[in-house]
Amino acid sequence: MKCAIYKRVSTKLQETKFSLGAQTTELRKYALSQGWKIIDEFIDVDTGGKLDKKGLNALLDVVEEGRIDVVLVVEQDRLSRLDTIAWEYLKDTLRENKVKIAEPGHIVDLANEDEEFISDIKNLIARRQKKSVVRSMMRGKRQRMREGKGWGKAPFEYYYDKREGAYKLDDNWSWVIPFIDDLYLNKQIGMVTIANMLNGICKTPTGNLWNEHLICTRLTTKAYHGVMEKTFATGETIKVEDMYPALRTKETWEKLQEERIKRGEQYKATSRQRDNLHILRRTIITCGECGRKIHLAMHGTRETPRYYLKHGRKLKLKDETICDISINTVRIEGNIIKAIKDILTNKDLAKNYMDAGNDKSEINFIQKQLVKNEKTINSMQSKLDKLLDLLLDGRLKKEALIKKQTEIEDELAVITKQNDQQKAKLEMLKKSESSHDYIYELLEIAEGFETELTPAERAQVMGNLFPKAIIYKDYLLLKAEFKGVPLDLKIPVAEDPYPQHFTKVNKI
Fold it and tell me: CA–CA separation, 102 vs 95, rounded Å?
């Protein structure tokens, strides 16, 4: 009989140190003992779970050319750990060309239903063994991360030092992250332009051009402030701090994420409008009545625009009233500038825009709130611990677990941050420090805000000082954080100068 020998291993390590040589020796010896003529030998260093492999494709070409009678393998799982459809295709190709599958000591004729059935069972077992191996590997990887050890390919700004068992900076590429951060945050340049600027300097380490996706990945990946975080198929997310040498701080990463959210609105405007950014363009505003996002909408013409803070659509509240807030920003802009000037002129004037905030009642309130927060945090941690048990007991599907875990972790992050802020504020109050001093120190960086800054620079400063705000019908609450202490600046809303003016609204 004319035979083709097929050998396969899954890794380069096996190719050089383990089973390829052993397979070759055993199969050649067996073919010789049977008096078979070896027509050709084929090799794959790849998984058995996929059909499209170089060696297997070449083998099937020989099969379809009618040059062989049998395919000789050490075990059938070397030929296939395929899913049902791919396995049926492979069997049909062999059966139609009257080619048998041989292992040392055993031959399977796929034209025989009983023998084909046995072959199917072997393929099924091989697939189960593959899944078992993968599960074992993933268990090992999860345990490795739990022990604070990393695995997997690092971003190209790093390399893995095998001798020290640690990730280290690649000095040839570590400049990229600070370069991107400076352009995106400080110089306010977009991702496409940054990619083009990098292409003017060099290509990526793989020789490809920089693109928007690569820049976005570098803006969002936690690895650059040292964190390795992976979510596994079990739904478990494991995070290891200080896995990589930091190229940016966690605070810079958080600023980058806030900046990306803000630009989602900003880049809907034309280039001319971006040059004349509204003072509140970089501040995320929500409605104090219903909690929905507020849009900065433009009325009038582009030459003489008027801006309104308003909802995209009306909403009926629980008390049957309609939430349709719409406030012309001229009723607020002057008061914002006046507040900054007043506070910087005289610290006492800050009291006009802030609550007193240092009496015993507030200290007592914060202390009670901290107790509630700790209970909530402990409850959420307990829920996270129980999720995996629910999955293992079969009472929760993997997709539902991942969704629920994400919801709890997001909520936990919010309450934890609020708790930290309240702790900082409590310390401030206990030391008899005034939030007025804090807001004065915060706003010192806005010196010359009205006269020396362009509209775009003014919007950027406002967004940095007050990244969030809440709008009510009679005041705007600008929300800041300074030295870990939450600070609120209350800006009154003046009378509407255009109470009867209605025009078509163009969202920008």
Answer: 13
In this structure, are 78 and 188 located in the same domain? Answer: no
pLDDT score of 34: 92
Assess if residue 6 is contained within a domain.
Answer: yes
Domain count for the chain, please give it.
4
Q: What's the CATH number where 225 sits?
A: 3.90.1750.20
Q: 429 lies in a domain?
A: no
Burial per residue of 452-485, b for 16 or more beta-carbon CB atoms within 10 angstroms, e otherwise: ebeebebbbbbbbbbbebbbeeebbbbbbbeeeb
- Count Cβ atoms below 10 Å from residue 78 Cβ, excluding itself: 20
Inter-residue contact 343 to 353 (CB < 8 Å): yes
380's tokens: 């959420």
- Domain holding 240, by residue range, is 158-266
487 domain residue, yes or no: yes
Gyration radius from the chain CA atoms: 33
In angstroms, the CA 480 to CA 482 distance is: 7
Q: Is 213 exposed, middle or buried (0-12, 13-18, 19+ CB in 10 A)?
A: exposed
Q: For 421-460, what is each residue's pLDDT tens digit?
A: 778 777 766 655 555 666 666 666 566 666 666 777 777 7
Q: Are residues 379 and 287 in the same domain?
A: no
3-state secondary structure 328-373: ECHHHHHHHHHHHHHHHHCHHHHHHCCCCCCCHHHHHHHHHHHHHH
Amino acid sitting at position 438: Y
Q: Which two tokens stand for residue 148?
A: 């604070």
Residue 195 CA to residue 198 CA, distance in Å, equals: 5
Q: Of 234-238, 293-297, 365-369, 476-480, where does mean pLDDT reach its minimum?
A: 234-238
Alpha carbon distance 508, 503 (integer Å): 15
Q: Please write the tens of the pLDDT for every residue from 161-170.
A: 888 888 899 9
Instruction: Give the chain's count of helices (H) and strands (E).
Output: 16, 19
Start-to-end CA distance of the chain, whole Å, equals 76
Give the helix ranges, DSSP H, for 51-165.
54-64, 76-79, 84-96, 113-146
pLDDT digits (tens, 9 = 90+) for 141-159: 777 777 777 777 788 899 8
Residue 32 sits in the same domain as residue 109: yes
Mean pLDDT score of the chain, rounded to an integer? 79
Determine the longest span between alpha carbons in the chain, in angstroms.
103
